[in-house]
Amino acid sequence: MPELPEVETVKAGLAPVMEGQVIAQADVNRPDLRWPFPDRMAERLTGKRILRLRRRSKYVLADLDSAETLLIHLGMSGRMLISGHTVGDFHHPHPAPAKHDHVVLHMRSGTRITFNDARRFGAMDLMQTAQQDDHWLIRDLGPEPLGNHFDETYLVAQLKNRNTPIKSALLDQRILSGLGNIYVCEVLYRAGIHPKRKAGQISAKRVAAMVPIIRDVLTEAIAAGGSSLRDYRQADGELGYFQHGFQVYDRAGENCLTPECKKKITRIVQSGRSSFFCSQCQR
Ligand SMILES: [Zn+2]
Fold first, then answer.
1. pLDDT digits (tens, 9 = 90+) for 100-124
2. Is 119 annotated as a binding residue?
3. CATH classification of 152-277, choosing from 1.10.8.50, 3.100.10.20, 3.40.50.2000, 3.50.50.60?
4. What is the pLDDT of residues 141-172, one digit of tens each?
5. CATH architecture of the domain with range 4-134
6. pTM for the model
7. Given the residues 48, 58, 112, 233, the one annotated as active site
């Protein structure tokens, strides 16, 4: 699943070809992805100018000049393909229509943006921009980890007396929105906290120390996505998922990267998801 940094990277890749641009034609090639598309989606997109792109949690939001907002969720396997666009010296010719090209936006500029999703866990929806906070995918989300509403006081209060493992608490999108399995593993490793430790049993001081770590882990991943973005766009015009070098995620059996630590990274399963950690460094 894409997490906050990957969605931020996709947004950054789409912004130059979507912001300020008019959708001349929208092809909607099936009635649904994970959920049904909204009524008359093609008609509601056609002729509309995209004012700006934003990100909320794991969703890209495109505000239209019709006072509606298009929500885009890439799901497990969704990809955005940009074609006909010149990036510096690079030009990506329009590809032949492919299987799983579910939505195609033909921009008046000549650029084409294709949403391809083989597994169809992605989603698109339209909402009134003014009512976006009430959208069913958005209304119960906690604050953005890089936003002003997330700080030490908030996290300490949220985790106090909580009897769930810290791993589950940080994955709970009602507490904090946008963190997923990969970055929670990275945060807990840097914080030296065992993923099974009960959230309410961690001292306020250690909980508070996680806040800058969460911000750092995400900010570094966004920066890495930005640099890989150029390479990917130049290579084939495709925006999808970028795998960065992780310190602990997916490193089971490999050496812990903490200097002097001789342990190997351990993998366990918690609530059906893999947790990677160092049993020496994380307590
Ligand atoms: Zn270690």
1. 889 999 999 999 999 988 888 899 9
2. yes
3. 1.10.8.50
4. 999 999 999 999 999 999 999 999 999 999 99
5. Alpha-Beta Barrel (3.20)
6. 0.89
7. 58
